[in-house]
Design goal:
Elements lengths: L7 H8 L3 H14 L4 H7 L3 E6 L11 H20 L3 E5 L24 H17 L3 H6 L1 E5 L2 H12 L10 H7 L3 E3 L5 E3 L2 E3 L16 H9 L3 E3 L5 E7 L5 E7 L20 E9 L2 E8 H8 L3
Parallel strand pairs: 1-2, 2-3, 3-4, 6-7, 7-9
Antiparallel strand pairs: 1-10, 5-6, 8-9, 10-11
Length: 302
């Protein structure tokens, strides 16, 4: 009598494999025993992360791109659901621009007519457009996070300078949390599946790590897999530690179409789109980039 609780004919039929494949596995199991839970986990598909770079929703600019974003979340989330893997959506910060609170423009003619109420309304409209263009099934399936950016942190800084306004202005924390995102305070790290997320990484002087070799500099500063935004550029760097564990750093670009007057020539160096990280496990992943131009064409056409 066979020591296996199921007949060979039933087993191969259920798994849709050949008898030869079944007998090959049987030989290995007899020789080495069944695979451990750790072995199975190592070969199972990893999580899928969709990273939303700096989106800078603000008055006077179209929020149509957030409708496309909702549809992209739906598409990638549906893939994760079918694979039965965790699906994480991470807004890397500066989802809202908050131009009325800019120290750079304060007291200048360029700031005339700006209001925080309009800033908050643009941000709320953007996140609602995202949510409305994604099915409740996928929206609820996704673990959603928002790492606060320096533009949104302007609100907290303004409250410190004007404490009498606390509780009156709509804080970006509540805008994002009301939409189901878990807020991560400014410059704190969010760790998911071995990857660290923050709006940017600080150097020893407290400023953002940057430069021509931005992604490599991130690795040398932190020596772990991280994803940051802030610079609006796209850069990646991949290596491994002495034990073979993957180390990957990503600077994820931005998610808006307009140019910023303050940036001048730098506007042409910015990468615009979304980043999808598949098979995320222990800091490793497979990266897919989706340009904003291709996203527009998919959802609007030429």
């Amino acid at each position: 009598m066979s020591k296996y609780p199921i007949k060979e004919s039933e087993f191969v039929k259920d798994l849709k494999i050949t008898r030869h494949a079944f007998r090959t596995v049987q030989v290995y199991v007899d020789a080495y025993g069944p695979p451990s839970a750790e072995d199975l986990q190592a070969h199972a598909p990893g999580a899928i992360h969709l990273v939303i770079p700096d989106a800078h929703a603000k008055p006077g600019e179209s929020n149509e791109r957030f409708e496309w974003l909702g549809k992209e979340i739906e598409e990638v989330g549906r893939e994760a659901l079918e694979l039965e893997v965790p699906f994480r959506v991470i807004s890397i910060g500066d989802f809202g621009d908050m131009p009325s609170l800019s120290h750079y423009d304060r007291g200048k003619a360029s700031a005339w007519g700006r209001t925080y109420a309009a800033d908050a309304a643009a941000m709320m409209d953007a996140i609602l457009k995202v949510k409305d263009n994604c099915s409740p099934e996928i929206w609820n399936y996704a673990d959603k996070f928002w790492t606060e950016g320096n533009h949104e942190e302007r609100c907290a800084r303004y409250m410190q300078e004007n404490p009498e306004l606390q509780g009156i202005l709509k804080d970006p924390f509540f805008i994002m949390s009301d939409a189901g995102f878990k807020p991560v305070p400014y410059l704190q790290w969010l760790q998911l599946d071995g990857v660290g997320y923050s709006h940017y990484m600080q150097n020893a002087g407290g400023r953002a790590v940057s430069g021509v070799n931005h992604a490599r500099s991130l690795l040398l500063k932190g020596y772990r897999s991280v994803v940051v935004g802030h610079s609006h550029r796209l850069d990646t760097y991949t290596t491994a530690d002495a034990f073979g564990n993957p180390l990957k750093t990503l600077v994820c670009g931005c998610y808006f179409e307009h140019d910023e007057e303050y940036a001048g020539q730098s506007n042409s160096t910015w990468w615009r789109g979304l980043c999808v990280l598949r098979n995320v496990r222990r800091g490793g992943y497979d990266l897919e980039t989706r340009t904003l131009a291709s996203i527009r064409q998919k959802h609007v056409g030429d």
